[in-house]
Design goal:
The chain is α+β, with helices and mostly antiparallel strands. Helices cover about 25% and strands about 20% of the residues. The protein has one domain (about 5-160). It contains four helices and seven strands. Mean pLDDT is about 75; it is low at about 1-25 and about 30-50.
Length: about 170
C-alpha cells in the first residue's frame, strides 16, 4: 500500500474520533481532506426549514442530501432537497453483523469496504478513478446495542467540499 493510500485511510479516522460520542457513530472519509462548511441559508425562512429537518447520523437514509458532514464535535446534520446545494448525498446504508463490538478499527474497515463496494454502482466509476469524495459513518462501541447503533452510512460529495446540486448517481465523476 502506498504512503498516500495509507494516509487516505488512517488520517481521517484519527481526526474524527472525537465525533463518535456526539453522533452515536463516527465518520470516516477516504480522501484525507476536511469537508468545508456548508453554504449559509438564503433566508431566515430557509434557515427555519433546515432546522426542522436536523437529524443524527443514525437517522440518515439513502437518497437524502445534507448540508453538514457530521464530523464536527457538535454536528448539525440537516436534510435538504438534493436539488439545492448540499455537501453530501447518502448513497448506501447497511448494518454491521450483531454480536460483540468489533473494535473501532475493524468497524471503520468494514464500513470503508462496504462503502467503496457500493460507490461504483452508485456513481458509475470506481472510487480510485473518481474525482468525488467518499465519507461514511460507522458504529462506536457505546452505541453498538442501541437501535441503529450498528449502522454504516455512506456519503458522496464533491471533492474539496464544494457543494453539489442534484444527485451524483450515475455521474461517472
Amino acid at each position: 500500500m502506498t504512503t498516500a493510500a495509507l494516509r487516505r485511510i488512517l488520517l481521517p479516522a484519527a481526526l474524527i474520533a472525537a465525533a463518535a460520542v456526539a453522533t452515536g457513530c463516527t465518520a470516516g472519509n477516504d480522501d484525507g481532506t476536511s469537508p468545508s462548511e456548508p453554504p449559509a441559508p438564503a433566508s431566515s425562512e430557509a434557515a427555519e426549514a433546515q432546522k426542522a429537518s436536523s437529524v443524527t447520523a443514525n437517522d440518515l437514509q439513502e437518497g437524502q442530501c445534507m448540508t453538514d458532514s457530521g464530523t464536527a464535535a457538535e454536528p448539525d446534520i440537516q436534510i435538504i432537497p438534493c436539488e439545492e446545494p448540499h455537501a453530501f448525498e447518502v448513497f448506501a446504508t447497511t448494518e454491521l453483523d450483531a454480536g460483540v463490538y468489533p473494535g473501532l478499527g475493524e468497524a471503520d474497515a468494514q464500513a470503508q469496504e462496504f462503502c467503496r463496494g457500493e460507490f461504483a454502482a452508485f456513481v458509475g466509476v470506481e472510487y480510485d478513478a473518481s474525482a468525488l469524495a467518499l465519507q461514511y459513518f460507522y458504529p462506536v462501541e457505546s452505541e453498538w446495542t442501541d437501535d441503529g447503533g450498528r449502522s454504516v452510512i455512506c456519503l458522496v460529495g464533491s471533492a474539496g467540499g464544494e457543494p453539489s446540486t442534484g444527485t451524483l448517481r450515475d455521474s461517472s465523476q
